[in-house]
Amino acid sequence: MLTDNPELYEARFPDTDRLAGRWAEDCLRRHGAGNRVLDIGCGTGRDAAHLHAAGRTVVAADLSEAMLAHARTHHPGPDYRRADLRDFDLREPGLHEEPFDAVVCLDSALLYCHTNAELDGFLASCRRSLAPGGLLVAEMRNGAYFLGRTDLLDAPAVHGFTWQGTTYTSTTTLSVDRTAQLLRRTRIWTADDGSPPYEQRSAWRLLFPQELRHLLAAHGFDALDLHDGPGPRTRPAWQEGDAPGGSADRDRLHLVARLTRDD
Ligand SMILES: C[S@@+](CC[C@H](N)C(=O)[O-])C[C@H]1O[C@@H](n2cnc3c(N)ncnc32)[C@H](O)[C@@H]1O
Question: Which of 48, 90, 213, 222 has the highest count of CB atoms within 10 angstroms of its CB?
Answer without folding.
Answer: 48
